[in-house]
Design a protein that fits this description.
mainly beta; Porin; 2 domains; eight-stranded antiparallel barrel; two-stranded antiparallel ribbon; 12 strands; 9% helix; elongated
């Protein structure tokens, strides 16, 4: 009996202090795919060279729904002289395809009042860009159980613009509408903690769109609505 007792003690010590990496059998499959905080399992059947504590990995994140706010800086000197800079609001959804790539759709909204360059009458402007493109991800850091993760990404997409400018002077056309196609590119990083995501980004866009007035036979010039937007936001991942 003493021989088996000492043999059991020696085997237990080997398991506890072994420096070899755990076997894959040490990772039991938990119910609900461990979608809550990482759980530590202490009383699971142990394979050879398995350490007594095993962890459940957080599942790979596939979708990101985010609300962002950024600083809008238009490239057009005419726009800057009329409305200046301002706040850009963005709603974005990303769905990852594999580990490195993802598809995303986003809609931005910028609106601000300003003064016309001539008689300084009140002018109101809004711009609505809609993007559909791809993102390329690179994981910079993640915790052992993937509950926390920091990813960098690059985004590129065509962009469709809708815009409206309203001049409140009585002697000019009241409203001008514009639409057109452009493009955007951007970089950013996402920090994920469970289902919570924090995003920081820098986007650059370019587009010249043609405006239309309600006055017949009046031609209006193309308008550059490209911009630089830097900001951040909060989201939910799954």
């Amino acid at each position: 009996m003493k021989f088996y007792k000492w043999l059991f003690i020696l085997c237990s010590a080997q398991i506890l202090f072994s420096n070899e990496s755990p076997s894959t059998d040490c990772l039991p499959i938990a119910k609900n795919h461990c979608r809550t905080h990482c759980r530590i399992y202490r009383n699971q059947p142990m394979a050879k060279n398995c350490k007594p504590q095993t962890v459940c990995f957080y599942p790979e994140r596939q979708g990101f729904l985010e609300g962002n706010v950024g600083y809008f800086y238009p490239f057009s000197s005419d726009l800057r002289s009329i409305v200046g800079q301002g706040i850009d609001y963005q709603l974005s959804f990303t769905y990852k395809i594999g580990e490195r790539f993802g598809l995303f759709a986003s809609a931005d909204f910028f609106t601000k009042d300003g003064r016309s360059t001539g008689d300084h009458s009140k002018t109101s402007l809004w711009i609505l860009p809609i993007s559909l493109g791809i993102k390329v991800f690179a994981t910079f850091w993640q915790s052992d159980n993937r509950f926390e993760e920091l990813d960098f990404y690059f985004a590129i997409a065509p962009r469709y613009y809708l815009s409206s400018a309203t001049n409140h002077a009585s002697y000019v056309d009241h409203k001008n509408f514009a639409k057109g196609i452009g493009g955007m590119g951007g970089i950013g990083m996402i920090y994920s903690y469970g289902h919570l995501s924090l995003d920081a980004f820098l986007d650059v866009s370019y587009s010249k769109i043609h405006s239309h007035t309600s006055i017949p036979k009046v031609k209006t010039p193309n308008v550059q609505v490209g911009s630089l937007v830097a900001g951040g936001g909060i989201g939910y991942n799954f």
